[in-house]
Amino acid sequence: MNLADIAEAVTSYHPSADLDIIWRAYIYSAKAHRNQQRRSGAAYISHPLEVAFNLTRLKMDERTIAAGLLHDTIEDTLLTAEELRRVFGDEIYHLVEGVTKISQIQFSSKEESQAENYRKMILAMSEDIRVVLIKLADRAHNIKTLGSLSSDAQQRIARETLDIFAPIANRLGIGWMKDELEDGAFMYMMPDEHESIRVELASGQSLREAYVKKVQTILENALIASGITGKVVGRSKHLYGIHQKMEQQEIEFNDLYDLTGLRILTTSLKDCYSVLGQVHSLWKPIPGRFKDYIAMPKPNLYRSLHTAVIGPEGERLEVQIRTETMHNICEEGIAAHWQYKEGEKFKNQYMDQQLIWVRHLLETQKDLKNPKDFINSFKVDLFSNEVYVFTPEGRVIPLQRGSTPVDFAYAVHTDIGEHCSAAKVNGKTVSLKYKLRNGDQIEIKTTKTQKPNRSWLSFVKTSKARSKILHFINSIEKEKSLNLGKTLLHKSLAEYQVDPLEFLKGKVFDETLRASGFTNFDNLVRSIGLGKVSTHQFIEKLLPREKIEGRQRKKTDRVKLCGGGRDFLLAGGVKLKCFDDDILLRLGKCCHPVPGDPIIGYLTRGRGITVHHIDCGKIQSPGEESERFFDVGWGERAKGAHSARISIIVEDKPGQLAEITRILASCDINITLANLRQESDQRANFDLCIEINDIEHLKKMLSEVAKVPGVIKVNRMEDYSAGKKKQERVKQVV
Prior knowledge:
- The chain has 29 helices and 22 strands.
- By secondary structure, the protein is of the alpha+beta class.
- It folds into four domains: 3-189, Hypothetical protein af1432 (Orthogonal Bundle); 199-336, 2-Layer Sandwich (Beta Polymerase, domain 2); 477-637, no CATH class; 640-725, Alpha-Beta Plaits, CATH 3.30.70.260.
- The strands form six sheets. Strands 1, 2, 3, 4, 5 and 6 form a six-stranded mixed sheet that branches. Strands 14-16-15-17 form a four-stranded mixed sheet, with helices on one face. Strands 20-21-19-22 form a four-stranded antiparallel sheet, covered by helices on one side.
- α1 (3-13) packs parallel to α3 (46-57) and α16 (349-367) packs antiparallel against α17 (371-382).
- The longest helix is centred in the middle third of the chain and has 33 residues, at 463-495.
- It is globular and about 90 Å long.
C-alpha cells in the first residue's frame, strides 16, 4: 500500500478533495515513525497507510484520512499534542486525540474501570462519530496482523474485537467491516473451529458454485421474460457467521442448508416486490422465513427482502432482494451517505439517525450506577436482534428479540412503562411476560397506582426498560434505607437515654460525622439503614463513659420503645413492629419463608432488613450483634404467591412426573422451576420451586403428593429441624 493508492481511492468518490492535507499528514507521520517497526518487522508507516486506505473504503473525507495517517503519533512517537494542533488545526487534532483516548481503554479491566471505559467510548462516538470510524479502520488492519503477538495479546484483542468493535461496525451498518473483524478475531479466539469450518467450506465449494450458477441462470431468464432490470449474484456466509448459526441451532456443519444464497439487485423499489413474486412462483416458499426489512428497516437502516424457498433438486435456498441503493447502505452503512460539495464540509444526514442509538446509550448510563448493569446494558444494545411491533396508531417500534409489553411500554414513554398494568396484543389480553413477535400490535393499559416491580427485571429485555426500572427501585430503596436509618438511630439513642435533638446538634457531632467518612447526616443514616454502620459504635464515639455503661438492653426497654406496639404491614405481607415509616425490607431467598413460618428480621449489611425463617442457617445466633435482630410477624394480607422449594424422590418409572404435576395442579400449585435427576438406584429426584399461599397450603400439598404410588419421599428442601435451640435464643433478644 502506498500514498498514490490512497489518493486515487479518495478522488474516485470525492474528485474535489484537498489531497495536500493527506500528503502533509503522510510526510509528518513518516517522519514521526521513522526507525520504528511493527512487531511483524514491517516499517511502522505501513500501518497508518493501511488505516488510511480502510478509511477510503468508508468514503471518508480528506481530514479524517489525514487523522488516520496521524492516529498513532501522539501515543507512539515524540510528537506532542500541542505541535499536532499547531500544524494541522483543531479538527484533525481532536480526531487524533479521540482515537488516542479510545486506544488507551482497557476493556478487560475490573467492572468499575470497564464501565467507565465503555462510557468513554460512547462519549467519543457522541462527540464525533469519525473518531470511532478511524478506530474501526485501525482495528480492521490490526486484526490481520496478530500473528506476531503473544498468545495472551492475541486472545485479548480478538475478544475485544468480537465484543466491542465488530458489533459497533454492525450497528453502523458497515457489513464488510463487521465480517472482516469477526473472521479475523474468530481465527484467534477459536482456531480449531475456524480451521474446521474453513476446510469444510473449501471441500464443497465447487459443487455449491455450480448449483448457484444454475439457479442464477434460471432467475436471470425469468427477470428478462418479465421485463425487470436486475442483477443476480451469488453470496456466501463468512466463517464466523456460519459458526454462530451452528451454535445457535445446535447443528453440525453438514446440517446447514444455507451456506450459499442469491442476492437480486433491482433498479426500483417496486421491482423488489415484483421479483419476490417471481421467486415464489418459481419455487415453493418455506413458511415463516419471509422478512420485509424494506417496510420495517433495522435500526442501522438495513433494508432488504429476505425469503427462503425449496429450489431446484429439493435444495433450500436463501434469497435477498433489494435495490442497488439499499445494497450500498447494507454494505457500507454510514459510508454510503457521505455527501461532498465543493467548498463545503462533508455532510451525512444518515449520521443523525445513527447517533440516536449513541444518545440512547448516554441517556441509559445516567440511570445505571452499578457497573455490571451498565456493561450488560451496553452489550445488549450492541448485540440486539430485533422484532418490529406496532402501536395502535400504526407507529413501528423496533425492540430486541424476546421483548415484552413492558419493554414496549418503556419504548413508547417512560411514564407509560412505570404505570403499565396490563397489555393487549392483537386485541387479546396477554401477560406482561408475553414475548412479542414481528407484526404484533400492542395496546398498554396504565393505572396511577401501578409502579415498577423488581420482578419485572426477570423478564424485560431492553436496556431502556431495565435501566428505568432499576433507577425507580433504587430511588425508592434509597428513601426506605434513609427512613430505616433514622428510626434505628433514634431507637439506639433511646437505649442510652439520650435526647436525639441534643445529640444531633453541635460542633462535636459534625466533626465526628466527617471523621467517620460521611459528608452529611443523610449519608450516615442511609448507611445505618443499609446495615453498613453500627448505630452503637457511632453513638459511643460521642457519649461519656457513664452513658455507655448505663446502656439498657433489656427486652422490657425494647417493648417500651415500640411506641405502643404498633405493627406495620410491609413487603410480602410481613408485619414489622415498632416502626412508623416505610422502610427497606425483603424476604430471604436463602430460606424462602412462607406465611405461617416462624420468622425474624435481620439487618443485612447493604440491603436493609431481610426476613428469614427463624432457623435459617444464614443468620447467626444473636450475641453481640443483637441490635441487628427485629421482631416481625405475618399480617392478615400475607397470603398470596410465595416461593418454596420441595424435593420429591420417586421410583424411576414412566408416568411419575405426569401424575405429580397433576396432583400439584389440583392443589392450585404453580411450578416456576424444575430440576429432574436420575439416580443410580432406579430412583429419580424432582427438585421443584413452587408458588404457595402459606404453610398450611404447603403441608396439604406435601400430604397429597406422598399418597402417589411410587413416591418414596417428599419434603421441603429447607430443613429447619436442627434449629430449635437457635429459635429460643433469638426469641430472648427480640
